[in-house]
Amino acid sequence: MIQVHTTGDVEEYAAAAEPFLKADPCARNVLLTIIQNVRGAAPSTYSGPPSFWWITDSETVVGAVSWTPPYNLLVSSLPAEAAPDLARAAVTRAAALGLRPLGVVGPAESARVVAAAWTEITDDRIERDRTILLNVLGSLVDVPVPPGARRPGRPADVSAIAEWLQVFSAEIEHAVPANAHLMADRMVQSGQVDLWIADGDIVSMVGYRDAAGVLRVGPVYTPPEHRNHGYARRLTYEVTAEALQRPGIDRAMLFTDADNPVSNSIYRQAGYEPRGEHVEIDFAERIHDAGH
Fold first, then answer.
1. What is the C-alpha separation between 290 and 292, in angstroms, rounded?
2. Three-class secondary structure of residue 25 per DSSP
3. Which SS3 state, helix, strand or coil, does residue 289 take?
4. pLDDT averaged over the chain?
5. Are 130 and 279 in contact (CB under 8 A)?
6. What's the predicted TM-score (pTM) here?
7. Which of 55, 60, 155, 175 lies 20 to 30 Å from 24, alpha-carbon distance?
8. What is the pLDDT of residue 172?
9. Would the pLDDT of 206 be above 70?
10. Residue 202: pLDDT above 80?
11. Has residue 292 got a pLDDT over 50?
């Protein structure tokens, strides 16, 4: 019997869902790191209280979902028959918070069935469905070293990193962080962002973190005036190589826009290979005709 469970308590959710999430730590990596974020007091970077759901089939967890406003609903693989109950539970939670998810992100089949169920019971319609590739490292490949060198982000870099987080989000048409400065500060303080410095200037950045033995690379950003020099490619290589030397990390992955041949080429040169399709689905409110 399929059941959907709802909570705003990260520990209740983690106790139920973490074993399921760790069973596929690449495809479910973001869901795992959201648990880390909320536990680490990062909810202050969100625009509303986090919400969580997990799905069971005869008491076995078969799906997990989180929502950290202003971001989209983030879903794992889940049974299609769970989508209507999940959508109703999410609508109820959104109404209680006075907020609404802007869309759904996750493995293609599951995200689409959840988005369809959501639009069935709301005034939302699907405005965009964008394919995102899950890329997993095969064999790491050395890449050319451009002028300059890598160094960790420092407190003095926080304002620049925050600005780049906002510009990057706008460029990829993603929700802008609720507090980019706080997010940048946390990345620096936790040692989760490296920069490439050339001629004394910051020319590229790569964020990264790990969960369940998997390094996830991103966000990766190079301003337009510094592109096509190999900075991000080399940063990604060096961050990956160093992480794989740390105890407990034996895999690496990242997401790319399927329609961006440049970024896909950059990461494949370093040894990352596409292993599955996820989607980002954006909602928009339906415009009702006059008199209806």
1. 6
2. coil
3. coil
4. 94
5. yes
6. 0.92
7. 175
8. 83
9. yes
10. yes
11. no
Measured between alpha carbons, how far is residue 108 from residues 115, 150, 198, 281 in Å? 10, 35, 39, 9
Which residue type, as a one-letter code, is found at position 256? T
Measured CA to CA, the distance from residue 212 to residue 191 in angstroms comes to: 18
> What 8-state DSSP symbol labels residue 154?
-
Q: Who's near 250: CB < 8 A, 6+ residues apart?
A: 213, 244
**pLDDT, tens only, 222-242:** 999 999 999 999 999 999 999
Identify the band that residue 42 occupies on the pLDDT scale cut at 50, 70 and 90.
Answer: low
Mean pLDDT of 128-135: 96
User: Residue 47 and residue 72: Cα distance in Å, rounded?
Assistant: 12
Amino acid code (one letter) for 137? L
123: tokens are 């005034």
The full set of domains in the chain, from first to last, is 2-132+279-285 (3.40.630), 139-270 (3.40.630.30)
Number of residues in the chain: 292
